């Protein structure tokens, strides 16, 4: 219990001092935490010298229940703990009304009696009822119980998380509380153990007394997965790892033994076992990786989550055994460095296995929500939402601890840890899991459980690119209640614009380049900041249709194209058309333009038929493919093909923190770091769908001098349209480049072959940025390049440079080359390549926002 509490406190970045009368045993039991520097030990005899702490935890009675009260009396007599928030943790078997009356509980202290603990590190030498039973089961294959005995099983890590949460917040202070698992009968307890231990018998003793939970005390129940509890516990026992680990042979003695053996006549009996010991961590790492891969393949190729979980548990066990062996060998001189690496790699595998075991069942909850949302049946969304939230919270905490240990090992020159930090954006994963947990807690509210919600859906055609993704050709209203999609109505945007009364002055580019004297709903997404455009779209919708909504969701054609890869071709009987990922753009455009006239519903009817067929196909998909649909939705949110703006503050904040609301955010890389950013924003003002033919690439160069930071951005356009298309193939592009507010534009031009044309850009000041805009035309079969140069003053000695490139919504996978010069740097993330000209370069695909940092 105490070790699990220690691990949970360390994952919360707490500093911990362990007071014990057996410090050596504690050191042995915490060897797996040896790389973490934020905890130490104090002998019980010296505990009065311990400095004041903010929090204190006492664990007693888990080894010997008879001494629990005496140890606690000594503990609370220490005046240093008088002002600390204190929790005393006992097994519920230690409770007695007589002892309870002798304990004086202050307002800042609480006593918690916990139920039957299951899981790793169970101490079979404890005289508590449950460990004694497990010992009897293993040795005698027999289970002796009192008639009517009730168990209250809890997974030890669930208990430690709950206790630490209470300790650091508003726990049950000033009273005695029972923290119990859900009741399990003696028969069910026997059956669960029988699954793990074959030929297990049960005997009922009529003279044995049953344990009891006293009345009149607060009781809090938490649920634990019994299968996981027993698998973890028996897996631990099977590996021979109990709470009495063998003392390690000192390194000097090991060296002496090896030297003595080498002098013996027969070398083979020594070399073979020694070689086996040295190879064992490597073999277990390979086997664990193989099992982990098999678990993933099993999970992805079938709906049998249980089998995939079991394989992941085998992988975890293999990694744990390998790590234990590596932790021993790494203390041997000359070998230590290598086995420090294998120890960490095994830890990575162990963590991945544990995450897979926890996360796999949650995919079923995602499947239930998606199915319930689309199907006509009745279902309760709250349990699934709660499960998803709890899993994501666990994931966030697990990743936080993983990051902490990885950074500590990287500081100690563990190469594999350094490589993980270099290759994996742990901060981003941690942020997504944390914010997703927050969002999952709001799923019932978002899905209209207590109050029906209406969301405005903007269908943005990214073949006619606009600042937030594409031209709004149609809109819809999604009515959601009790976790279900009650209705989706789709209408042509022009039918709504026909209802607008009065004049709304448009932004000058709309007036000048689109030749629109009025501002309409269809052009409301002119601001690249999606929350701003969403509010503007809501305003137009309300003025035109006199309706209020609870949020706005915008998406382009890319997510539909990706989902079609999993549903397969969709046949629309009313149109005698088969829609595939390959022909989606063409068929959508053909139907949108065929037989249209003012007031026509041709386009809306086609989109309604397509959306209904798509929803029908998704609802009939297998669990595996539904999981793939959720993956498509996640990637579309990450790549800004879907953007969500909600009125409710809590989910809105979570969406903002994950970057899923399309907001333009200003990042900083620190006080001594030069923060830089830019973003390309394009608007097709040619009233055509020419973006279907346009290919785009970028080159961005940064040069540091003593006085200025110079930037050159080159955007290369290639229009592959056939000249026979005429005006419908011309890309008439009003582009804007967002740059820092202190930047000075020093040059702008277009390059077409050997011809150059200087531009007179329009520069506007927005919140936290400048926008540099100009109109260009790229004719069919033509290539043209836009070149923009700007500079910013260097007003202090910076030690690093941070770059943020914002990807435009509706654009997919544009290649970009980034060059850095002027400063000899020591570190870059990602890794830049130094060329012969003294410029360091990095090439990537801008599928989502890009971050880079260079330090010197």
What does this structure look like?
By secondary structure, the chain is of the alpha/beta class. The chain has four domains: 2-238, Rossmann fold, CATH 3.40.50.720; 284-441; 453-657, Aminopeptidase, CATH 3.40.630; 673-855, Immunoglobulin-like (Sandwich), CATH 2.60.40.3680. Helices cover 40% and strands 26% of the residues. The chain is built from 24 helices and 35 strands. The strands form nine sheets. The chain has an eight-stranded mixed β-sheet with strand order 26-25-29-23-22-31-34-33, with no helix packed on it. The longest helix is centred in the middle third of the chain and has 39 residues, at 336-374. It is globular and about 95 Å long. The chain starts with a helix and ends with a strand. Residues 241-266 have low confidence and may be disordered.
> At the third CATH level, what is the topology name of the largest domain?
Rossmann fold
Largest sheet: 8 strands, mixed
Rg is 33 Å
The helix content is 25-40%
Overall outline: globular
Number of strands: 35
Mean pLDDT, nearest integer?
A: 87
Distance between the termini: 47 Å
State the CATH class of the largest domain. Alpha Beta
Q: How would you classify the helix and strand content by structural class?
A: alpha/beta
Which architecture of the largest domain would the CATH scheme give at its second level?
A: 3-Layer(aba) Sandwich
């Amino acid at each position: 219990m105490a070790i699990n509490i220690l691990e949970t406190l360390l994952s919360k970045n707490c500093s911990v001092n362990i007071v014990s009368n057996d410090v050596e045993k504690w050191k042995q039991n915490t060897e797996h935490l040896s790389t973490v520097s934020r905890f130490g030990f104090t002998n019980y005899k010296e505990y009065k010298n311990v400095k004041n702490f903010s929090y204190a935890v006492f664990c007693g009675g888990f080894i010997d229940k008879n001494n629990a009260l005496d140890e606690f009396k000594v503990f609370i007599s220490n005046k240093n703990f008088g002002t600390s928030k204190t929790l005393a943790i006992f097994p519920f078997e230690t409770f007695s009304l007589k002892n309870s009356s002798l304990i004086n509980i202050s307002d800042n202290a609480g006593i918690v009696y916990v139920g039957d603990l299951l899981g790793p590190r169970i101490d079979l030498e404890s005289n508590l009822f449950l460990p004694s039973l497990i010992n009897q089961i293993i040795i005698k294959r027999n289970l002796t119980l009192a008639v009517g005995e009730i168990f209250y099983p809890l997974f030890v890590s669930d208990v430690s998380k709950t206790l630490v949460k209470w300790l650091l917040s508003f726990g049950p202070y000033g009273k005695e509380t029972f923290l119990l698992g859900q009741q399990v009968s003696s028969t069910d307890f026997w059956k669960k153990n029988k699954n793990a231990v074959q030929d297990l018998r049960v005997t009922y003793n009529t003279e044995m007394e049953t344990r009891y939970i006293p009345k009149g005390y607060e009781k809090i129940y938490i649920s634990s997965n019994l299968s996981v509890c027993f698998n973890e516990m028996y897996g631990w026992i099977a590996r021979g790892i109990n709470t009495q680990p063998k003392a390690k042979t000192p390194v000097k003695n090991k060296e002496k033994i090896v030297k003595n053996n080498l002098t013996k006549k027969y070398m083979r009996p020594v070399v073979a076992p020694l070689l086996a010991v040295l190879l064992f961590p490597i073999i277990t790492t390979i086997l664990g990786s193989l099992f982990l891969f098999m678990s993933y393949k099993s999970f992805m190729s079938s709906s049998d989550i249980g089998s995939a979980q079991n394989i992941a548990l085998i992988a975890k066990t293999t990694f744990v055994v390998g790590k234990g062996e590596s932790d021993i060998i790494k203390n041997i001189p000359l070998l230590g460095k290598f086995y420090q690496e294998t120890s960490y790699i095994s830890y990575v595998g162990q963590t991945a296995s544990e995450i897979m075991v926890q996360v796999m069942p949650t995919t079923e909850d995602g499947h239930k929500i998606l199915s319930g949302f689309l199907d006509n049946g009745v279902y309760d969304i709250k349990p699934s939402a709660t499960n998803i939230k709890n899993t994501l919270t666990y994931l966030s905490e697990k990743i936080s601890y993983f990051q902490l240990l990885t950074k500590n090992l990287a500081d100690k020159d563990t190469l594999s840890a350094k490589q993980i930090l270099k290759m994996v954006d742990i901060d981003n994963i941690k942020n997504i899991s944390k914010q997703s947990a927050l969002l999952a807690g709001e799923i019932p509210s978002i899905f209209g459980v207590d109050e029906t919600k209406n969301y405005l859906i903007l269908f943005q055609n990214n073949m006619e690119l606009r600042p937030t993704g594409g031209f709004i050709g149609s809109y819809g209203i999604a009515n959601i209640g009790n976790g279900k999609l009650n209705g989706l109505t789709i209408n042509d945007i022009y039918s709504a614009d026909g209802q607008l009364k009065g004049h709304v002055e448009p932004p000058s580019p709309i007036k000048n380049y689109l030749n629109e004297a009025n501002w309409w709903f269809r052009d409301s997404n002119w601001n690249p900041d999606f929350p701003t455009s969403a509010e503007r779209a809501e305003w137009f919708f309300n003025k035109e249709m006199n309706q209020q909504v609870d949020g706005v969701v915008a998406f382009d054609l890319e997510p539909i194209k990706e989902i079609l890869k999993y549903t397969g071709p969709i046949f629309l009987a009313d149109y005698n058309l088969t829609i595939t990922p390959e022909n989606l753009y063409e068929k959508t455009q053909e139907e949108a333009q065929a037989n249209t006239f003012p007031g026509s519903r041709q386009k809306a009817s086609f989109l309604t038929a397509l959306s209904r067929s798509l929803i029908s196909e998704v609802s009939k998909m297998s669990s595996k493919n539904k999981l793939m649909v959720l993956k498509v939705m996640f990637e579309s949110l990450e790549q800004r093909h879907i953007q969500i703006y909600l009125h409710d503050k809590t989910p809105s904040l979570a969406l903002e923190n994950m970057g899923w609301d399309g907001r333009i955010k200003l990042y900083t890389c620190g006080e001594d770091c030069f923060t830089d950013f830019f973003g390309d924003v394009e608007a097709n003002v040619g009233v055509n769908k020419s973006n279907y033919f346009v290919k785009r690439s970028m080159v961005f160069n940064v040069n540091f001098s003593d006085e200025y930071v110079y930037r050159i951005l080159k955007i290369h356009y290639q229009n592959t349209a056939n000249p026979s298309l005429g005006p419908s193939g011309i890309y008439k592009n009003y582009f804007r480049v967002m740059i820092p507010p202190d930047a000075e534009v020093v040059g702008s031009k277009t390059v077409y072959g050997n011809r150059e044309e200087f531009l007179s850009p329009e520069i506007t000041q927005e919140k936290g940025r400048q926008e540099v805009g100009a109109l260009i035309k790229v004719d069919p079969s033509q290539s043209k390049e836009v070149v923009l140069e700007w500079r910013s003053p260097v007003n202090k000695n910076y030690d690093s440079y941070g770059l943020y490139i914002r990807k435009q919504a509706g654009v997919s996978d544009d290649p970009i080359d980034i060059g850095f010069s002027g400063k000899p740097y020591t570190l870059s993330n990602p890794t830049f390549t130094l060329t012969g000209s003294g410029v360091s370069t990095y090439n990537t695909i801008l599928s989502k926002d890009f971050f880079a940092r260079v330090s010197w």
